[in-house]
User: Fold these one by one.
Assistant:
Number 1:
Amino acid sequence: MKVVIGVLTYKRPDGLKRLLAGLELLTFDKTPAPDVQVLVIDNDPEAGAQDYCLRRQESYRWRLIYCHEPRRGISHARNRALMLSLGEYDGIAFIDDDEEPAPDWLDQLLFVQREYEADVVTGPVLPRLEEPAPAWSKTGGFYERSRHPTGYRMELARTGNVLILTRLLENPENRFDPRYGLSGGEDTHFFLRIRQQGHQIVWADDALVYEWVPASRIKPGWLLQRAYRSGNTYALCERDFRLPAHRLLLRAVKGVTRIGWGLLLLLPSILLGPVRLIRSLQQICIGAGMVMGLAGSRYEEYEETHGV
């Protein structure tokens, strides 16, 4: 099997070096070792990663390909990776430049794909918080994501840890929407379409990826911004897929309910400490993002930096 690992990067030289080093340590025990190639898509207009990647090419364990995508927005970078993999590879695995894979990461993705004959396989992204991290950030589990048993059928996947069979890309509609390039949520939009077409997305619980969370994100303000954006982009995605009016109305009701529930718990949460307070504020922000998204308002979280 020929697999390309799509690495999107934007002005994270240390993260990119750590990730490329981690990819050199990949092992294969459950599946035959594939033909692996690593494709770095640099979304920095100044092509900041070019020199490092070109220096690493000769000695790198896998074939290392560098491509500069100067158009702003993560959707353009992801689509460039898709186009370069179409026709030459059997699958494309995405991982981000603030992440690091377990040595058997790709082996586990390929094993689950084979076992379940899945079109898409996704797995856990586990946080590694930059120290010293405040106590509330750990006890609250704000950076943890839900996990499932291997083989669980998913409605969505995240591009920080995913394997996509390239046969899905033969449909020209299966691309990342540029409208979500600076707002995020391009993966939600992409995989909603994939599921709508009847393709299977399967969970691989042992395909581990670790995400390095910098101090700039270990703040209540960042969590609330991300909560608003998540609610906003999900509602926008639902609008795009022309759901029946009653489904959109239900989403609006859920958004308003989240706002009301968060406001109701706000005062007691203040007395119960920062974890409860942040959770209440997150509910308000998610609900507000949903309502504004249904109204057509798009929050572009990455307008300034477009880093993910």
Number 2:
Amino acid sequence: MSPVVRRLLFWTPRVLGIAFAAFISIFAMDVFTAHYSLPQLLVALGMHLIPTALVVVALIVAWRWEWVGAALFFGLGVAYIVTMWGRFPLNVYFAIAGPAFLMGLLFLLGWIYRKELRARG
């Protein structure tokens, strides 16, 4: 495996995880359009940021233990589809669960090829 491929396979799921967490945190901004008092606003914002926190926790775990992270990201994708099924058009499920499945696959590949990824050369 070439050094470029090793580097890409190592860093791609991590960078995608950070970008995905930023992407889904954007959806929490809708609480600012409602007319809440400050305590209500903070509670609503905290509730809307729970999915982001789950992604960040999965990313932190996956950074160290790739196989556990792969299972967590697959689980997050499945959980989203199961809990939200029938509420949105199909493209929404691809936009939210798709990146979670992709990161799960990339972390799984990173775990499978971990010895080659850590090799010097």
Number 3:
Amino acid sequence: MDYNALLTTIKEWLFSSGLKIVLILIALFIGLKLIKGFSKRLSKLFLKKRDDEEARKRADTISSVIRNTLSIGAVLITLLIILEQIGIKIGPLLAAAGIAGLAIGFAGQSLVKDIINGFFMLLEDQIRVGDIIEVAGISGVVEKINLKLTRLRDLEGNVHFIPNSNIDTVSNKTKEYSCYLLDIGVAYREDADEVMEVIKQIDEEMRQDPKYKDIILQPIEIFGLDRFDDSAVVIRARTRTAPGMQWSVGREFKRRIKKRFDELDIEIPFPHTTLYMGQGKDKSSPPLHVQMDENRSAR
């Protein structure tokens, strides 16, 4: 074996194809940096007209998807060029990939549906990273979204990977603003108008509180006496908050309601049963016969 000839061949390859491969990798590195810069610039363009939390979430989501898509494309193109430089003909590979892609296309229609659904979800600004949503029967915070799938993390910390083709309906709980619905039950003896005034006072105090004044967006809406339950009359109200803050506001509102109702002796009823023996036409009620079993042992 002629080692000198082999060494000469290696040197020639390094100074020809090898040098080209190094330059190609450098170009890839620069290209990835440019793609990253482009995605940041695109994000800033989105924020020129509107710079708030909602706009930032949308800009971050779209720029992330564009950056990942362009980066994958750049890596694949670079890989094909490198294969050609090391002597592998990419023509047959592309032809084989086309045939394989056609075969996979018939079997992988769900993948196409994933990509189409993902594209329109992003185009229509249905969900963004950081939103709290409910899709496919699962609720959680959107951690990542791309054209293939959406990743959610629920309240227990579980991560759910949901293909976009499985998403038929999106319930976004943090789109622009959020609401918390309050069903406040009080005893039948209470004056409903007085209770509603107390609720308004609590809302006014919360909107003056530095901790909550910036996240409660408007005065509480009291719809009125909503229904008669078995043990309570229910007053329905709704408060509007900044996106994602409805639960913390709702918990604090309930805490203050319980404390204020205790101070004013407004009864929050618990389930109980009232025995009604009926009433005759003469407005008299029949007696209630009670018999004690003396032979029954006490427990």
Number 4:
Amino acid sequence: MAELVHERLIDLTGPDGTIYDRALVYAEPNGRTTWAGFVEFLPQRGDPVRTGHETTQSNIEGVAYWATGLELVYLDGALGRAWRRMTSPGIDRVRPPGWTAAGNTAGVVHLRLETVDPTAPLRLMATRTLVPGQGRRIKEGGALVYERTVREPAAGNPGVYEFAAQFGSENAAGLMANTLWNDLHGLGARLLVDGEEVALTNAAIKDALLAGQGS
């Protein structure tokens, strides 16, 4: 199963004039010992397109690190490759993870964390530093991707942090919810899923993730 490891806001135009505003990098097992990475481009309207394998790394963390270094000129070229791959006659049109007829990427839900505790986002990412685009793999539960810090905590005002959660099933959503609850309960944090505040309980978080997946 492919796992989201990086997300980037972009402003690129495809060969047919379609405007794409998000690029998602996924990692998937490539044999027994390596991971491959590919890029999925989401348009403002219409269906997403994706590249074939763009890199091969020894582990999922390697794909995530590769993704953080992608420059806009590379993504522009990758968009052209993705577009040709998805529109060329005879191509095996394997749809991107979570593809739907409406062009949505199911299973990618946006989270916002508000907390006065500066260690909370570090705990959530299981890291000592925050780098936009870095991912945390949740065993059998998908992945968390840190997107950005909107505001640092200061003078009693909470910091605001944004993440993307990717998962592929109801069971995975439950594991993701359990991870979020374990890392955040007792910290006085607020968690918003797709803009809606969620009670910090396993059941409430899981329900919110699944509701966001279907939106």
